[in-house]
Specification:
The structure is a homodimer of 430-residue chains.
Chain A (H helix, E strand, L loop, with lengths): L4 E6 L3 H12 L1 H8 L3 E7 L15 E3 L2 H7 L4 E4 L7 H11 L3 E4 L2 H18 L3 E2 L10 H8 L5 E7 L2 H13 L3 H11 L7 H4 L2 H15 L9 E2 L7 H9 L2 E12 L2 E12 L11 E8 L3 E8 L3 H16 L26 E11 L4 H11 L4 E6 L7 E12 H12 L9 E5 L3
Parallel strand pairs in A: 1-2, 1-4, 2-3, 4-5, 5-6, 8-10, 10-16
Antiparallel strand pairs in A: 7-9, 7-11, 9-10, 11-12, 13-15, 13-16, 14-15
């Protein structure tokens, strides 16, 4: 194990440059911790000459990352290109085929092709490591795969997208609407120019699918994740949630239910006094639950140069130390098929906001619909009184099946005097 | 790696019995995750016949745990006897001498003899694992040793004793005094009959010394930990802290300072809005800080049968998977000497409560003392007015050296009209 571990890095964006910087700055510490030197030997990027704040002197440079993955003098290929298909996938497959270990921060790739790539890597006897793909600087993959190795996790959930959490935090703290905060976040660099992957919940869904596979020993099943984003969340709902003792968070939640594996990403009302409700700004957090540990929460920075480079380097150190653990904690060929639970069968409580013309009788119609569907109301609040004007009416209903809630909302939407489509947000029992 | 991993368990108290139950209940899962079976072959306890809710049929039983450690048919000895010396230490040394891996939950042993035992284990080529020794079900050892392997941690702190956190939480929530809650905690089994190890801060200090060694790559230095317990915390201070925007927590804090490695366990005022302030009841939490990740917090159950057994089994799984990492992340022979920072040189802010006879002029004397020592007051609050009666006066002072604060307090204590020794609690900048 005294031989130098040689690293080739594909992609020199923020995380790639950060990884080079960390490996340079901490080389003595890493040598002490690995029992051998870790050295970058090759890099690949679109533009060699761009100033990244780190020298590329003495490194082999490849224009073609796929060529680097198979030909460079290296033991490990670090894939930081991104995207579920295209070059990133080719780089990973070429590296595995050439017998190189792979470290990747690519959540989309793992979410879409994770089980297949894990099988390829395990057949080739190499490691496919992806700590940086989920929740950046939080070592949640290691915690799940090793730290909780004695546990059958029954539910795992988290704040998996820092951009969404930042927007929701500022909406709550400053009383702003979604679009205003989004624009500001874009100008500050906290949100992308095209923010859809973040705000539509897709990024969180990628991460959730990976966590669910690891937690439950099943093939990664991104296609079955129920995904809703945060763009429909209004200031009004944030304030009503707060009055009811909740905060609105975009959570990814995966759980074993009577109907299969539930995977969902959507805005939730969470009780204001549970730990994850206090996770604010760009911070991420993941909670795992099992019989033995009850619950474990990890909270930290989920993105950015330093946290993501830290995760990439942790995977490199594992490889340097000779760690060999199956990609998803059990051999990929033994991962069970996904068995997704239909969202219709989700069982939970709901917040429903109606915009109602303030006149007698309308709420009697709503109450009759609830009664006819055997749905039980927990609370109802009308905010303000303005005869013949439109006012918000908020109600929360006790736990019931999603399909039934959908039918109730469809029926309520048709009541004369309800002037907008009802807003529904799920209430989580955490 | 397809051979069964054989386990001998020394000590069948709550955690020992819990470990046997977990290994039985999850044997299929563990086999899938380890790629081999894990099987208990031998146990040792004082009383063979005691009902522990788990069968000992088919297991070799030893009255003498040290004999078991050297003679039983096993690959791993799990030491769950406890205590820094005596039989526990003999068991661990015998196991290492016989070439067996060791898994222990023994924080006192590691805190006092950790560096020496690590050297012995590494010379013998066996693993000494201790995830269960710090913060129970929270995989903080793995997170530090591997998850943050690319980071130079600069500060690590946490709520490391569930009994103290439970007592402080109930004091705050219910307005009770320390002794009342302690008695109740004892009757509920949350505090020992002799609670001194917990409430005096010694248990937290054991854990802190282990974390500091791991974080900073230095020999374990329990003797240098500055330790204060929670028995002097009064309801009055809890209320004043809350009015000032703080909560009182017993923290263990280890940090690299200009004067060496600071290690201290004592009650602290922490800002009410930082994540660790919200960690309540018996929960533990640990926060690690470094340049790259900024900060990472892990929160969960720090004690009890299930969480501790989960940690013991995680270590067993690591061994079954062939993981080989030095005990304290770098080889024990390379651990640096401790270089403790003297507590006199601690630099921080302080809360000071005086009991003062309410008459003119006394506070002028106090203010003069502060001025003469060049200590700057941040706030001063007198609660209530009762001429010639004793009233509490609370002040907070800006960051200064501990030695100076001690001199100030000694001088204030001598002021005519100050009727009790001043109460000092450090304010943490988290």
């Amino acid at each position: 194990m005294s031989q130098t571990l040689k690293i080739a890095v594909a992609g020199l964006g923020t995380v790639g440059a950060g990884t080079l910087k960390l490996l340079n700055a901490e080389s003595a510490l890493l040598k002490a911790r690995c029992g051998r030197s870790v050295q970058v030997t090759a890099v690949s990027a679109r533009d060699k000459s761009k100033d990244r704040g780190v020298s590329l002197d003495g490194l082999e440079f490849y224009d073609d990352a796929v060529e680097m993955a198979s030909k460079a003098d290296c033991d490990v290929v670090v894939e930081l290109i991104g995207g579920s298909d295209g070059i990133a996938k080719q780089v990973v497959e070429a590296a595995i085929a050439a017998g190189r270990h792979v470290v990747t921060a690519n959540k989309a790739l793992l979410a879409v092709h994770g089980s297949g790539l894990a099988r390829q890597a395990e057949e080739a006897g190499v490691t496919l490591a992806y700590e940086a793909a989920v929740a950046g600087g939080i070592p949640i993959i290691k915690a799940m795969r090793e730290g909780l190795a004695g546990n059958s996790v029954t539910r795992i959930y988290g704040i998996l997208n820092g951009t969404c959490n930042y927007i929701l935090t500022r909406m709550r703290e400053e009383g702003l609407e979604f679009t205003d905060v989004l624009e500001d976040a874009q100008s500050l660099g906290y949100a992308e120019v095209d923010p859809s992957t973040d705000i539509d919940g897709v990024d969180a869904a990628h991460k959730l699918a990976i966590l669910a596979s690891l937690a439950f020993g099943r093939e990664v099943d991104f296609d079955s994740v129920h995904v809703e984003g945060i763009s429909r969340i209004s200031q009004m709902d944030i304030q009503f949630a707060e009055e009811l003792g909740f905060r609105i968070k975009l959570l990814g939640i995966a759980a074993i239910t009577d109907h299969g594996v539930e995977q969902r990403v959507h805005p939730c009302l969470v009780p204001a006094d549970v730990p994850i409700a206090g996770v604010e700004d760009v911070f991420n957090a993941v909670v795992a639950e099992s019989e033995y540990i009850d619950s474990l929460m990890l909270e930290g920075r989920g993105a950015g140069e330093g946290p993501t480079a830290s995760a990439v380097v942790a995977d490199i150190v594992d490889i340097a130390r000779g760690l060999k653990i199956p990609t998803f904690a059990i051999p990929a060929v033994d991962l069970k098929s996904p068995e997704p639970a239909p969202m219709d069968r989700h069982y939970g409580a709901y917040y429903i906001r109606l915009m109602v013309i303030d006149r007698p009788g309308i709420f009697a119609d709503v109450a009759a619909i609830l009664r006819d569907h055997e749905v039980s109301m927990e609370s109802v609040l009308q905010y303000g009184r303005s005869p013949d004007e439109v006012v918000p009416v908020v109600m929360t209903i006790h736990e019931t099946e999603e399909a039934r809630t959908v039918r109730v909302i469809e029926a309520i939407a048709k009541v004369d005097g309800i002037v907008e489509p009802p807003v529904m947000i799920r209430i989580e029992n955490l």
